Amino acid sequence: MEKKKLHSFSKILSIAFAYVGIVTGAGLATGQEIVQYFVSFGFAGIFGAVAISILFMLFGSWILSLGSLYQSDSHMEVIEDVSYSWVAKILDWALTFTCFVMSFVMVAGAGSNLAQQFGTPTWVGSLVCALAILGVSFLDFDKVTAALGVFTPIVLVMLFIGLITVVTGPSIDWSSQFGLAAELPSSIPNIGLSVINYLAMCLMTGTSMLFVLGGNVMGIDNAERGGYLGGFFVGVISLITAILLYSKIDIIGTDPIPMLTFMEDIHPWVGLMMFIVIFGMIFNTGFSVCYSLGKRIAGEDDSKFKKVMPIIVLVAFGLSLFGFQELVAVMYPIIGYIGIVLLITVAIAFFGSRKDIMKEKGLRARIYALMIKRQDKNQPWTKKDKHKMDKLVDKSFSDNDEMKSDMKEVVEEYHDFDEDQE
């Protein structure tokens, strides 16, 4: 049985999980971001968490679709085509700066996570994370994508375990908890601005890698749906995390890793599992920003990439020693305000490219069908077919040789899959 479409649920799920892995890093997995941006506003934080879910779905879908349209290897390949040159330069510098800042914030988060769990010096966890980032950065990109998504289903399970304990446990005076939460300090003046700042901050952190992720997806529908599903997962994680933190805010509100304290209170083994998940999510974002920064500096020069990655990781480790909680409180809001320019640019770019995206979907579907025909020994491959394919490839946004090569890989992947099912 042949696949006639470029859609694949397994691919969509893989993209969604990778999206979550890229966007949900140290701050969200630890609960520190949720406390800063939502819980500290009391009951209003619940509405903020719902709003952020919808925005993550929309912007994730838009960014991944644009990345797939342009088959991008870095954020500049998209930004240069969808905005004015001066805007592109500003965003390039901003995204590069964000990747740089987040590299050492994530490594610092790894240090705090290990220190809270085992009492080790913070530099030990930071060093382990830095070495892991360096090692994985030299793997094949498909393996990297799989690695980014591996902790997503686990963190969802952990959060639902926490939610069950809250629902089935002793009754909670939610009014009192919301009141205590509202007394916590926040760097943002109101919940509306906090939602926008949080979205902008997360996307400033993840957009560079999301463009690269989308650029490695041939089926634009896969990228689009993966963005919606991934955004939904991020929203669910944010909302459940907020509810859990509200439930014990009187105990864990000032902890550097509040989610770890929450899970340890359920059972030490649950706390240990959460420690592993948090470390994995920290690694995901740490790797994403370091990898994106390396790609931005090295371009398509693999040898240069291998030389700059150790330098990036070494600098990230050195700067991580300033401390995780302090870095989150100071750097995240700054990045979020800068990121509002990115949100506006992405929205304008997507709506301005909708016709191109629809056209490209049709072109790739027809190229895909012709590729299947060329591979099928039971169907004749004519000069007319070759001419038709060349004409379609010329019309595509992608480089001609890259389009043929990448589409061939997709066809072979699906073809092998079908044979296994027969």
Automatic annotation (TrEMBL):
Protein name as catalogued: Uncharacterized membrane protein YkvI
InterPro entries from the UniProt entry: YkvI-like
Upper classification of the organism: Bacteria, Bacillati, Bacillota, Bacilli, Lactobacillales
Cleavable signal peptide: none
Keyword Transmembrane: yes
Keywords: Membrane, Transmembrane, Transmembrane helix
Membrane-spanning intervals of the chain: 12-31, 37-70, 90-111, 123-141, 148-171, 191-214, 226-246, 266-287, 308-324, 330-351
Domain of life: Bacteria
